Amino acid sequence: MSIFGGTGEHFGLDIGANHIRLVELSHAGSKYALKAYAQAPVPAGVAQSDSKLDLQKLAKIISELAHHAGINTKNVVSAIPGTSVFNATVKLPPMSQSELEKAITYQAEQNIPLKIDEVKFDYQILSEDPTTKELTVMIIAATKTKVNQLLELLTYAELNVVALETSTVAMARSLAMPSVPLAMILDIGSTTTEIAVIEGGNLIQTRSFPLAGYGMTRAIAQNLGLETDQAEQFKQRFGLSQDKLEGQVYKVLEPILKNILDEAIRSAKFYQEQSGKKIERVILTGGSSRLPQITEYIKTYMGVEISYGNPWSNVSYKTADSDKLNQMAPEFATAVGLAMRG
User: Fold this and answer.
1) I need a surface site. Which of 97, 99, 177, 323 has the fewest CB within 10 A?
2) Distance between CA atoms of 156 and 46, rounded to whole angstroms?
3) Domain 178-309 coded CATH 3.30.420.40
4) Where are the domains of the chain?
5) What is the C-alpha to C-alpha distance for residues 14 and 256, in angstroms, rounded to an integer?
């Protein structure tokens, strides 16, 4: 599902709040091989800025990173952040393609909380009832302002945009496992947590909210009287361990993580009400997903099986790169998924 665009040779570009990550793959059919990958930090506030100067700074980082990684193509697929995206799932009766296009526009007007001329939207048919031929369709829309800003950034970087899509669509592509037909992706990033239900490799339901790793770090700093850098170190070192540092970090993090997991539980219940199917596995990813004891806590709190997502599982690469790639796996799900688009 793309906001617009087609396919072709390209690299995937994930522009996060704190890092830029890119991946280029070669592929034939469903087989992928890693050609290039890289990441670079982004100065605080630059990725969220609307100023031309900061866009140009960010474009320069992208250009230099792509050059350093040895990427030769100028074609790129990039992601629109989940917080800039609206989505709705609707049921539609059987109809012709032209009727479907009109129905999607009408449903977008009814379900997207912005004026239709303020957004770009696309849709994906999730399923068709074999008896009634009723369609279940997901509509995804992004504000034209955000889309145009991203296009402007990529123009500054002298890149040719093949397509834009949402980060959750990309993650669903890279993290889906044939052995797990139904699962929830829980992506805990630095500034945003994204929740996605995937069934049979397709994105079925998604939502995002601005509660994630940075909020945890800030809470530790405020409650324990630490500088931000030291609070981040405490978060990564002690996490949800109750027997470390007298459980002080755990006591700060637990209510924040509970809020995140409560949102995940609500999403799982909503999906079950709509489909009659129960989600029994969570695929964990994102830079803030590797806190000590987090998998044990989530498994107990949500009553589901937990596994870390590995976007490299369907990609071949040099054995010498194995340890490094596995270590970076939680942060590269979106970039790999964008590179897999085709």
Assistant:
1) 97
2) 15
3) yes
4) 178-309
5) 26
